[in-house]
Specification:
PhnB-like; alpha/beta; Signal recognition particle alu RNA binding heterodimer, srp9/1; 18% helix; 3_dmu_93_MTrfase; 130 residues; 8 strands; VOC family protein
């Protein structure tokens, strides 16, 4: 059976920090798997070889990339979250936008409260009140 899972590749050894941040910010956040690179493996020793976590009812995977790439995260692909309350929307916005780069600040754009930001890791998030 096929299953689509977003996969976040970190290039600066930030996978564990990001996973901890996201699972602490979202009420249902949970780290499911942490597998680390060992000595002599192609990745940074102790870095995340495979991380699996859930936020907003969605499972995601991540790793600390053993290879350096000329590309990184881009807002042309973002994680979209429908929030159940204004309080949840504002809490998530405050956490994700802190240290990040807001693309569309939290506001009403004629289709309800909405915000779009790149977080401090460069991952792009769209938040909307359902």
């Amino acid at each position: 059976m096929q299953k689509l899972t977003p996969f976040l590749m970190f290039q600066k050894g930030e996978a564990e920090e990001a996973m901890t941040f996201y699972t602490g910010l979202f009420d249902d956040g949970e780290v499911l798997v942490v597998e680390r690179f060992g000595a002599g493996e192609p990745g940074p020793e102790g870095g995340i070889k495979q991380g699996v976590f859930t936020v907003a009812g969605q499972q995601l995977r991540c790793l600390d990339s053993p290879a350096v790439h000329e590309f990184d995260f881009t807002p042309s692909l973002s994680l979209f979250v429908r929030c159940g309350s204004r309080e949840e929307l504002e809490k998530l916005w405050a956490g994700l936008a802190e240290g990040g780069v807001p693309l569309m600040p939290l506001d009403d754009y004629g289709f309800g409260p909405f915000g779009w930001t790149n977080d401090r890791f460069g991952v792009s998030w769209q938040l909307s009140l359902s």
